[in-house]
Amino acid sequence: MACLAISLQPVNGPDILLQTRSWFPVSRALAAVSAFRLARLSLARGKQPHASPSSSASLDAIGDDPLATGSGQLVVGVESQYRVVYRLVNSIYVLGVTTASDHAAPAVHAFAVADAVNQAVSVLVAACRGVDATPDKVHRKYPEVYLALDLVLHGVGSVRLSQILATIHGDNLARMVNSSPDAEARARGADSWPVVEHLAQDRHAARDGFAGASFELPQETLSAGDEFSASSLAPAAAAATGDEPPPEEAPPIEKDPFAASDMVASKPEEALVGAFKKNKETALVVADPAAALAGLEVTTLPPAEATKPTFIGVEGFEGDYGGIEFGNEEASLAEAFEGFNAPFGGGLDASEFVTTTKKDHKDKTLTGLEILAMSGGQAPNAASSGSQLDSLVTPSKDMTVPELCIVEEINAEFKESVLARVGLKGTIILRTLPPKKAAGRETEFSFRLEGTSGMKRAALQSTVLSSLENGLFHVKTPSKEEPIPIMKYSFLPKHSPLPLRLRLVKRHSGTLLSLMIHYASNPMLPQPLSNVTFIVKLPVDPTLLNVSPKAVLNRAERELRWHISDIPLKGPAGRLRARMPVDQDSKDGELEVVGMVKFAYQGPFTLSGIKLCPAINSTAQFNEVGHTFSSGSYRCI
């Protein structure tokens, strides 16, 4: 489609005019024009990184604007992209908006929009009586400019545009709008409608008359024609045949379509068997297989160079692929194709396609890339003997007073770029002195909680903790070896901070599935997140896969994992891309892809902002150890 909207945007101040087609939403046109303004201002500020706040007014100057050229084009928008063709007239941008998603003929659309923008510039220059165009001059001739740009948006020729420019400073707006078509018709040498209107009326009347007319001949005319044809053709027929009557034709005899042919009926042996004669040498050929295989051609094996592995340099899947050694005749088929089961060998086992005996692997999941995914599998087994709280709270060797820490879990779900739901819950954990050090004494102290304004609800373990109102709590419990959860709480969604913002973009075109994850860190975090794992649940087990950056594929779980060592607090958003062919076509429905994130933090700060303080501004009766917050169900769909 060609030009969808035309706008007049000054360098400083609000937009002067926005004219759209009747079927194009005004909200989308406003979004495209606003995105152009934001892009222009951001580029202007990017050229002055050391500008002081007092000189912020100079950012809107034309000389500091990278788009301050005579003309050009710019693609704006994120979800819906638009191509904006612009021209700068003094201090006013003339903008033409069209779509940027049509890849069939983008150049044709760009030139069509540029033609409309050039015509709009002519209207603007004519209305301002020169190239010194200002918003004040445009406002003086606003009705004329509005109607003229509406005609330009719907398409006008050069003759009609000249008539509009000549009458734009007249006193009659109707003359400028209505007299233009007649002027264009006169310039092309065409007649006006009143001159040719009677021809159209005659044509309609003739069509109605022919539609109701009947062309059947009367019966008397048909009888006269039959008598004339009989009298004229009788002598010729008599001369041709003589006095004898013509011979009568024998009626055709119907044949059985399922009857046997004459060849089969007459000579059945010759037709069905081909009159083959017995050969006395047949028994000798059957008895000697070498004589039977004497006429067969054996295909030679490929040369040794064709069996060498091929190096593939695709990012994330570098390595040698293929390579079969035919010289070792005693090697089994699984050993010959062992290269395909390497960590970067693609995970193809050729023995699945032939009828042969496969080796029985005891652990089928620990092959290929799955070894990398299971490389850290020994750590959970070693820690499984202890409880979950023991892994969260590590006791100090020189503990002299009780210790408190906060363990929080953040859960969030994003649908594309919109946050669907979020939940933050936490637990305050107490570790008392060991019973041997306590010597039978009970653990008893008080503390105060700060930063609980966003807390939704809390549950206390009444046998250990009691509330003293106003955020004060008192602990009294016998000494124990294991840590004790004394309070659990949850936060309101609007007060739950998000460590990461996610967005999953999925495109399913034909049998090709492409996906990308955008992620950005919360700049208000106390310190950057480290050792973050992004997991994508794939709908199928991919045969070919292209990822950026490098990732680990777990075929058993159909998971794709990216490990990011550090995510900066401020900076551009990160991108994780993957592309693979699938069996299901996009016309049969969309495939479900789910992205998840695993991260954890341990340090002196909490995600919710809750602080543990002494009950009285004096020496604390407890030690505050490292707090922890981690991700629970943190995913994007």
TrEMBL record:
All residue ranges annotated as the MHD domain in the record: 399-637
InterPro entries: AP2_Mu_C_sf, MHD, Muniscin_C
Region listing for Disordered, in residue ranges: 233-255
Biased composition (Low complexity): 234-243
A Pfam family per the record: muHD
Record protein name field: MHD domain-containing protein
Gene this chain is encoded by: LOC123051003
